[in-house]
Amino acid sequence: MSRNIKIDIEEFKIHLLEVLKNEFPNIMERILLYLTNRFDILVTDYKSKINTVDARNSVKIDNPTNNIENYLIADEDGKILIKNKKYKINPEVFKVIHFVTAREIVNTLKDIATKEYANVYVENTELKARKAVAEIVNSILPAYWDMIHKLNRFDKKYRDMEKTNLIENNVINHPSKTDYIYGCIHTSIIIKYADYLSNVETRKAEESKNV
Question: For the range 188-193, what are the long-range contacts, defined as Cβ-Cβ under 8 Å and sequence gap of 24 or more?
Fold first, then answer.
């Protein structure tokens, strides 16, 4: 889109969602990269963002390493199948997966909205732009989460892996640890989408009480 061309704000929202749709594969790869290269930093970030002492101490991961794959331990009683071998994983790591998944999805919306707004409405002051972007982000957040959920459901990379490696009892024999972690991100998006819907319903219920 050319600079200095001003469009209607509703048209801009439609344009923004189209840009964000194309960003979905990059979101998935970024989350995977963070989990497999800086997991230890994510653990620290997670604890720093949580408000209560109990929550900060709730992640029972000793001496976190930079790669989440290190928490996949071979175990004959494990429920995870990778290259025909059984594994288990510390369930605490999923708290960090959910944290970085939600953060990256929302941050991508904010970053793309800011960039695209600057390209279209270049004459606005920085303060006006920040306020406008915040309003736009809040306005399209429901449609954005719906879109992310749908894109995730039909994610070709994961669906191809699932179809190729699905065995009896709906168990996936993952071809690698990385593919298993990618599948965890896929599941995490479903969970965070459900969380978002639940939070929306809770807010609506609270607002109705105050009317």
Answer: 188/94, 188/97, 188/98, 188/101, 189/101, 189/105, 189/148, 189/149, 189/152, 190/149, 190/152, 191/98, 192/98, 192/101, 192/102, 192/105, 193/145, 193/148, 193/149, 193/152
